[in-house]
């Protein structure tokens, strides 16, 4: 057990690192940490010091407070990948067991036919699914799919990876997509499906994907905001000024 000592490093910073190790290595997500009083007595610090250390870890997302219940180790957040890959393969790569509940599947008229290259009188397949990992609901997705590339999709088993199904049954390999992300709060139906409270934060992704230039999928996915985050690598490169950009006038 680590101790807090007098020295140049503030006591709240020392306690914060002790609690960080506890959160990252010793306790499982959802486990309670000792109370303010217990921490103060154990490490010989004031409750103000404890409050400062715990508050910083709550702000970082490592701990979470539940009113009237205490402070707990926060659930681990998954980084949403920026690759054109399936939920199934993503979860397996993380060592988790994916599963899917097909909520509905049928034919309908999408609000935006342009995304799938449909004529005014054409239908598309509408598929709504709940995605889980190790039994926990992580995402609700509702997608429209091209009847041209995926005929009779509504007769297929849709409880696994759609991308694997597309490749195996139709010879369709999605190779390009445009994805938009925004934030929402969960309405009553989405909250019930994802086992969160109404009004909980969600990360929403809309992906329009194609295969060899032919539009195939227009899907919106609602991910639990308490379990997911997005990490991006940024640099200072200005568009059109990189090492491969053209120099001089046009020819």
TrEMBL record:
<dbReference type="InterPro" id="IPR036388">
    <property type="entry name" value="WH-like_DNA-bd_sf"/>
</dbReference>
<dbReference type="GO" id="GO:0003677">
    <property type="term" value="F:DNA binding"/>
</dbReference>
<keyword id="KW-0238">DNA-binding</keyword>
<dbReference type="InterPro" id="IPR000524">
    <property type="entry name" value="Tscrpt_reg_HTH_GntR"/>
</dbReference>
<dbReference type="InterPro" id="IPR011663">
    <property type="entry name" value="UTRA"/>
</dbReference>
<dbReference type="Pfam" id="PF07702">
    <property type="entry name" value="UTRA"/>
</dbReference>
<protein>
    <submittedName>
        <fullName>GntR family transcriptional regulator</fullName>
    </submittedName>
</protein>
<dbReference type="Pfam" id="PF00392">
    <property type="entry name" value="GntR"/>
</dbReference>
<keyword id="KW-0804">Transcription</keyword>
<dbReference type="GO" id="GO:0003700">
    <property type="term" value="F:DNA-binding transcription factor activity"/>
</dbReference>
<dbReference type="GO" id="GO:0045892">
    <property type="term" value="P:negative regulation of DNA-templated transcription"/>
</dbReference>
<dbReference type="InterPro" id="IPR050679">
    <property type="entry name" value="Bact_HTH_transcr_reg"/>
</dbReference>
<feature type="domain" description="HTH gntR-type">
    <location>
        <begin position="9"/>
        <end position="76"/>
    </location>
</feature>
<dbReference type="InterPro" id="IPR028978">
    <property type="entry name" value="Chorismate_lyase_/UTRA_dom_sf"/>
</dbReference>
<dbReference type="InterPro" id="IPR036390">
    <property type="entry name" value="WH_DNA-bd_sf"/>
</dbReference>
<keyword id="KW-0805">Transcription regulation</keyword>
């Amino acid at each position: 057990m680590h101790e807090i000592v007098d020295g140049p490093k503030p006591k709240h910073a020392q306690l914060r690192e002790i609690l960080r190790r506890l959160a990252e290595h010793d306790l499982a997500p959802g486990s309670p940490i000792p109370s303010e009083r217990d921490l103060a007595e154990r490490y010989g610090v004031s409750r103000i010091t404890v409050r400062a250390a715990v508050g910083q870890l709550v702000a970082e997302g490592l701990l979470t407070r539940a009113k009237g219940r205490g402070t707990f180790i926060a659930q681990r957040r998954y980084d949403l990948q920026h690759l054109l890959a399936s939920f199934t393969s993503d979860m397996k790569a993380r060592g988790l067991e994916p599963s899917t509940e097909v909520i509905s599947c049928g034919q309908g008229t999408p609000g935006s036919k342009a995304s799938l290259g449909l004529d005014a009188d054409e239908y598309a397949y509408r598929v709504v699914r709940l995605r889980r990992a190790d039994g926990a609901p992580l995402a609700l997705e509702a997608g429209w799919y091209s009847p041209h590339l995926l005929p009779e999709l509504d007769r297929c088993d849709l409880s696994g990876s759609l991308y694997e199904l597309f490749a195996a049954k139709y010879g369709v390999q999605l190779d390009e997509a445009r994805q938009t992300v925004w934030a929402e709060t969960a309405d009553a139906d989405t909250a019930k499906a994802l086992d969160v409270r109404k009004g909980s934060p969600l990360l929403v992704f809309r992906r329009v994907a194609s295969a060899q230039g032919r539009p195939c999928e227009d899907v919106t996915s609602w991910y639990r905001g308490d379990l997911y985050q997005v990490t991006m690598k940024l640099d200072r490169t200005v568009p059109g000024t990189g090492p491969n950009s053209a120099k001089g006038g046009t020819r």
